């Protein structure tokens, strides 16, 4: 077992990330009010990467329920480019961005490749524009591959799942304060509202409120336990976005025009990133999970495997990097570290988009390990085969 895990562990502990597109941001314009600007990839140092879709982009919106194109009122709160977008998550099963306007119950799924947007009509969430308690402001991908969202007061904990290409929405219940929270309440505006959330490898979530308070959400008990307050942030810093980076640390961002900060969830001591100093970020979306014993590691900016939740007995390997040439080796390890599958794929002109069939594999977790012909590690990523 140790023999098989050793190369993976070398990647995990030896990896340093520079200018890697690490997570995603929902950004706003340089304005004192909430005003959506674009979705973009973010580099590990806090600088902006590729712009994916913006307020001026042409939006092709397809209704999931009606299976047809829809025409949206751009002056309402209920449209895919509404100025009040404030919740974002990464859907690894299709390389999509899932997001919601803050004053609406509509759910949108943006395909990063085609730029087509799916409108998921949502009759479960009850969002009222004039009721701040009901606004959906926190969203993240869970370790099981589903998307989760929580409103400001915790009275709605929403699960967005996908089966056979169709998204469904379920209300999981009301999140209440842990008895130990005292004055640091999750359900009170001054201490618990707004911000963003991330997921861990044990199916828990962590909410970072606007004020920098951190709460651990137990999905079993539906309770929010106060963990502590982020230190090292400026006194007036507004925490509006949070993501796990490829090192397993937390990155937070502000809507008020400020730099990004990084810290460990183990000590909550934030240090400023060296990147851009005046970003207006309303939400962040993670590829990664806190406390994942086999953290997803991607040393290249443009190589990936999806989906991580495998329902259709296949994964897709994508490469878009001119420095990668010749063959790459794809190896699957089971959770014990045993190699159970390997194949070689040919990269031409730095590009590859190839599906690998995974029929007859037992349900469970696996590690996809990708290396160059020289043995250099390119990617190590956990997937979950569900059927």
From TrEMBL:
<dbReference type="Pfam" id="PF18962">
    <property type="entry name" value="Por_Secre_tail"/>
</dbReference>
<feature type="signal peptide">
    <location>
        <begin position="1"/>
        <end position="19"/>
    </location>
</feature>
<feature type="domain" description="Secretion system C-terminal sorting">
    <location>
        <begin position="306"/>
        <end position="383"/>
    </location>
</feature>
<keyword id="KW-0732">Signal</keyword>
<dbReference type="InterPro" id="IPR026444">
    <property type="entry name" value="Secre_tail"/>
</dbReference>
<protein>
    <submittedName>
        <fullName>Por secretion system C-terminal sorting domain-containing protein</fullName>
    </submittedName>
</protein>
